[in-house]
Design goal:
- The complex is a heterodimer of chains A (270) and B (257).
- Chain A is of the alpha/beta class and 270 residues long.
- Chain A is built from 10 helices and 10 strands.
- In chain A, helix 4 packs across helix 5, helix 4 runs parallel beside helix 6 and helix 6 packs parallel to helix 7.
- Chain A is globular.
- With 257 residues, chain B is mainly alpha-helical.
- Classes of the chains: A alpha/beta (270), B mainly alpha (257).
C-alpha cells in the first residue's frame, strides 16, 4: 500500500471520528470511499480507490479513457454496484437498495448525454422527481423548477421539449433537474464532452456558479481550464487507481508521477 | 341486374363486414393483453416464468394461424372432454366445468388473439428495450423507484416506438380474420362466398369484398397514423403557439391534453 493510500485512510478515519462525535464542521467528509473495487467480468475498472470529499469541496477527476473515472462516480450513487470496499455518503453506507434510494436523493448526477426525458416538457423534467420522490406539491415543484431554470438561464424554454433545445441548453436543464432534488453533492460525468465547442462555456459557467455557491462537486472532465480555475483538488486516475492528487497548482505545475506528466504533456500540447 | 345486387346481398356483406371488424377489434384487444403479459414475463428474472413466455411465443409464432384456428375449434371438444373427466369432475364433485365445444367465433378469437399476442409481445419487448439505458439511469439517480421509472420514463417513449409495428399487426390481423370463415364464422369472406352462391357473380363479389377489406384497412391505417401524432408531443403541439410560462397551470394542462 502506498503512502498516499495510507494518508487517505488516516484522513477517512479522522473524518469518521469527527462525524461520530456529531461534528458537522466544514472539514467533515461528505463522501468517503475506502478500497473501492469494481470489476466488469475480468476487467478491473477500479482497483482499490480511496477518496474523501469534504463538504463544499470541488474535486475534478481527470485521466485517460478507460481509467475508471466514470465508473468511480457511478459507484458513488450506486448506478454501478461496487465489488469491494466501502462507500459512505453523508453517513449512509451504500450496502443494499434501500440505502441506495436514500443516497440517490442526496446525490445529483449530470450525464454526458444529458438523458433528459424526451416525452416531457423542460418544466416537467425538472418537477417530476420532487413530486414523485420528495412528495412536493405541484405548485411547490413548479416554484422550485422556475427558480432553478431561471438560475441556469433557461426559464423562457420551460414549455419546450428537450429535442427542441440545443445541447448546451439541454445540459443546463439536466443540471436544474438534478438541483431540484436539493442534493448535497453533484456528480458530473463528462458534462461537456457531447457538446459543440461554442456551447461548452455556457455549461461550465453554470457549474462555476454552483461551485462558487458552495456546492460539493465531483467532476469528471477533460476541461483543464475548468480544473485549474474551479477545482479545490485534482485527481488523476489511470488503470483503475488514483495515481496522483493535489491542488491544481501542484498538479499542473509540478506533477510528481511520470504517468501524470505523460498525460498532461499529451493533452496540454496544443 | 336487379337479382345481382339485391338488398339481401348488400345486407349480408354489411353484416359480414361488421362481424369482421368485431372479430378483429376484440381479438386485437386480447392480443395486446396477452402480448403485454408475455413481454413482462420475458423480462422477469425468474427462469421458469421467462421460459414459459418464450415457449408460448415460439409455439404461436412457429405454427400457421389456420392450424391454430382448426385446433381451437376442432381439437378443443376432445380436450375439454378429457379435462372434464380427468380434472374438473373429480375436483368439483361431479360437475362439468368446461362446455362441450367452443363457438366458432370464440374459437377464432382465442386462436388469433393467442397468435397475435405472441407477435405483439415482441413488439412491446423491443419497444421497452430500445429506450436508452441512460433515461432510466437519470431517473434512478434522481431517486425514482423502479415502478415510477417504468411508468414515467420508459413506457411513454416506448409506446411511441411501438405504434408503427402495432399498426402493421392490426392490419395483418384484419386480413387474417378471414381465416375464421373456415370454421363457419360468417364474417366478410364467408358471407361473400354465400352471396356468390345466390347471384353467381364471383368477379364482382370478390372485388367488392376486396374493396371493403381495403377500406377497413385504410381506416385502421389512418387511426394508427393519428395515434403516432398523438403520441409525439411535438407534433401534437404543432400549429399551436408555444405556451409561455406565465399561465403555468393552464399551459401545462393544455400540454397534457
Amino acid at each position: 500500500m502506498s503512502a498516499q493510500n495510507r494518508a487517505a485512510q488516516n484522513r477517512a478515519a479522522q473524518n469518521r471520528a469527527a462525524e461520530n462525535a456529531g461534528a458537522e464542521n466544514a472539514g467533515a467528509a461528505l463522501i468517503a470511499l475506502e478500497g473501492v473495487e469494481k470489476h466488469f467480468g475480468s476487467f478491473k475498472a477500479l482497483r482499490g480507490v480511496d477518496l474523501d470529499v469534504a463538504r463544499g469541496e470541488v474535486v475534478v477527476v481527470i485521466g485517460p479513457s478507460g481509467s475508471g473515472k466514470s465508473t468511480l462516480i457511478r459507484c458513488i450513487n450506486g448506478l454501478e454496484a461496487h465489488d469491494a470496499g466501502t462507500i459512505t455518503v453523508d453517513g449512509i453506507r451504500i450496502k443494499d437498495t434501500r440505502d441506495l434510494a436514500e443516497v440517490r436523493r442526496e446525490v445529483g448526477m449530470v450525464f454526458q448525454q444529458f438523458n433528459l426525458f424526451p416525452e416531457m416538457t423542460v418544466l416537467r423534467n425538472v418537477t417530476l422527481a420532487p413530486m414523485r420522490v420528495r412528495g412536493a406539491s405541484r405548485k411547490m415543484a413548479i416554484d422550485i423548477a422556475r427558480r432553478l431554470l431561471d438560475r441556469v438561464g433557461i426559464l423562457e424554454q420551460a414549455h419546450k421539449y428537450p429535442e427542441e433545445l440545443s445541447g448546451g441548453q439541454q445540459q443546463r436543464v439536466a443540471i436544474a433537474r438534478a438541483l431540484a432534488m436539493e442534493p448535497k453533492v453533484m456528480l458530473f460525468d463528462e458534462p461537456t464532452s457531447a457538446l459543440d465547442p461554442e456551447m461548452i462555456n455556457e455549461v461550465l459557467d453554470v457549474m462555476k456558479d454552483l461551485a462558487a455557491q458552495g456546492m460539493t462537486m465531483i467532476v469528471v472532465t477533460h476541461e483543464m481550464g475548468f480544473a485549474r480555475e474551479v477545482a479545490d483538488r485534482v485527481l488523476f486516475m489511470d488503470g483503475g487507481r488514483v495515481v496522483e492528487t493535489g491542488t491544481p497548482e501542484h498538479f499542473f505545475q509540478n506533477p510528481t508521477e511520470d504517468r501524470t506528466k505523460l498525460f498532461l504533456s499529451k493533452i496540454l500540447r496544443h | 341486374m336487379s337479382n345481382v345486387v339485391t338488398p339481401a346481398i348488400l345486407h349480408a356483406l354489411l353484416k359480414g363486414a361488421i362481424l369482421s371488424v368485431q372479430l378483429s377489434v376484440l381479438t386485437y384487444g386480447l392480443a395486446l393483453l396477452f402480448g403485454l403479459i408475455a413481454a413482462l414475463m420475458r423480462r422477469s428474472g425468474n427462469v421458469v416464468v421467462k421460459g414459459v413466455a418464450r415457449f408460448y411465443i415460439e409455439l404461436f409464432r412457429g405454427t400457421p394461424a389456420l392450424v391454430q384456428i382448426f385446433f381451437a375449434y376442432f381439437a378443443t371438444p376432445q380436450i375439454f372432454a378429457w379435462l372434464n373427466r380427468l380434472v374438473f369432475e373429480p375436483l368439483s364433485g361431479g360437475r362439468v366445468l368446461l362446455p362441450p365445444h367452443l363457438s366458432p367465433f370464440a374459437a377464432a378469437v382465442l386462436a388469433l388473439s393467442l397468435g397475435y399476442g405472441a407477435y405483439l409481445s415482441e413488439v412491446i419487448r423491443a419497444g421497452i428495450e430500445s429506450i436508452h439505458k441512460g433515461q432510466a439511469e437519470a431517473a434512478a439517480s434522481l431517486g425514482l423507484g423502479g415502478r415510477d421509472i417504468m411508468r414515467f420514463v420508459v413506457i411513454p417513449p416506448a409506446i411511441r416506438l411501438m405504434i408503427p409495428p402495432f399498426g402493421n399487426y392490426a392490419l395483418a390481423l384484419l386480413k387474417d380474420s378471414s381465416l375464421a370463415s373456415t370454421i363457419s364464422v360468417v364474417e366478410l369472406t364467408l358471407s361473400t362466398e354465400r352471396a356468390i352462391s345466390y347471384n353467381y357473380q364471383p368477379a364482382m363479389m370478390w372485388a367488392a369484398a376486396a374493396v371493403i377489406y381495403l377500406a377497413l384497412s385504410m381506416v385502421g391505417s389512418f387511426l394508427f397514423s393519428y395515434l403516432e401524432v398523438v403520441a409525439d408531443p411535438i407534433r401534437r403541439r404543432r400549429g399551436r403557439p408555444l405556451t409561455r410560462l406565465e399561465p403555468v397551470s393552464s399551459g401545462d394542462g393544455e400540454g397534457d391534453a
